[in-house]
Specification:
Layout: H1 3-9, H2 25-28, H3 32-47, E1 51-55, E2 65-73, E3 80-89, H4 110-123, E4 126-132, E5 146-147, E6 160-164, H5 174-188, E7 192-193, E8 200-205, E9 208-215, E10 218-223, H6 226-240, E11 242-247, E12 250-251, E13 254-259, E14 262-266, H7 268-277, H8 306-322
Antiparallel strand pairs: 1-6, 2-3, 4-10, 4-11, 5-6, 7-8, 8-9, 9-10, 12-13, 13-14
Length: 327
């Protein structure tokens, strides 16, 4: 079966895979829609005063950057919502102690997600989702970091570079700087940080209870006070420019469907993506996908090379994450 056929059989719209994502700037620059997306990203970066153009000082290193392209689909029907081009710094070339000091990423625990969903069902709470536009750009940059001009961008003076004023996606310290600013903002508005999961913020007053869960630039809001949820949403939008995605539908590869009976979570698309990447979409399903008569021994067989070993470890990690809905 083709990829498209298998996805259609599992309920995805006919054009779900008709929109391909460019792999390089050269490829993207051939399409008006991707050029428009790149121009919109550059405008947002410049409006946020992300960098200033300057000459590279002596004895200073410069890091590269690249474009990453993504077709954004609507959660409820899979149709194309927008074309997103994101400029990413090549942070892997940064030198610790010189270009950055500390790192941290606000990644909530899956146990916290499951617990919150359970509380939502038991208490019939509201459950909303927000997305922060260019979240990492809101973090202040303390270090002196220089970056090459983005592909497709030109300056009036030759050999100039970008001196970053704000953090950028790809930088080692970007997640930490964004989290520092967001947590300071929430605490100033009456939220307190959960000691068992630093990505969970709680606000409680009399009978009102609100929980805010952060996963990098995705935010889940829940609680029994709709006025507080609307209030904090408006405040976040004024400072960070957010997108209100409405009721929670899709989060961390989990498809969330709510009804009067409760909440159902599944990873249908995640499963199909694993099969697609492993080249097994056309395989016939069986109850036992391995010959049970085979005996595995530590000394037998040929060891995997580094490339295959890395792919194998990644596949095992994805299968482990799949146990969140298929224990």
């Amino acid at each position: 079966h083709t990829v498209e056929t298998c996805y259609k059989k599992n309920g995805f719209p006919p054009n779900f895979f008709s929109k391909t994502e460019p792999k390089s700037f050269k490829e993207a620059s051939q399409s008006d829609k991707w050029i428009k997306a790149m121009n919109a990203e550059i405008e947002a970066l410049e409006a946020n005063h992300t960098w200033i153009l300057t000459d590279l000082p002596p004895n200073k290193s410069v890091i590269g950057c690249k474009w990453v392209y993504k077709v954004k689909h609507k959660a409820y029907d899979g149709l194309v919502e927008r074309y997103k081009a994101r400029l990413v710094a090549k942070g892997y070339t940064q030198i610790e102690g010189q270009d950055y000091l500390d790192t941290f990423s606000p990644v909530t625990k899956i146990t916290t997600v499951r617990l919150l969903l359970a509380l939502v069902v038991v208490n019939n709470w509201h459950l909303k989702q927000l997305d922060v536009n260019n979240a990492f750009l809101h973090g202040d940059l303390n270090e002196e970091v220089y970056m090459t001009l983005p592909p497709g961008m030109h300056s009036t003076k030759s050999n100039q570079v970008c001196r970053l004023q704000r953090s950028l996606y790809g930088l080692k310290q970007a997640s930490r700087q964004w989290y520092a600013r967001l947590s300071t903002f929430l605490i100033s508005h009456g939220y307190r940080q959960c000691s068992s999961d630093h990505s969970l913020f709680i606000k409680q007053h009399l009978q009102s209870f609100t929980a805010l869960l952060v996963y990098v630039d995705d935010i889940v809001l829940s609680g029994n006070d709709l006025l507080e949820i609307k209030s904090i949403t408006q405040l976040l939008d004024e400072v960070f420019k957010i997108k209100d995605l409405g009721d929670l539908k899709f989060f961390l590869g989990l498809e969330v469907a709510r009804s009067k009976q409760g909440i159902n979570i599944c990873q249908r698309k995640y499963v199909l993506d694993i099969l697609h990447d492993a080249g097994m979409l056309g395989s016939k399903p069986v109850f036992t996908p391995i010959d049970y008569a085979v005996r595995l021994h530590q000394q037998s067989g040929t060891p995997l090379d580094d490339t295959a070993n890395s792919s194998y470890r990644r596949l095992i990690g994805r299968l482990i994450y799949l146990t969140n809905t298929r224990p």
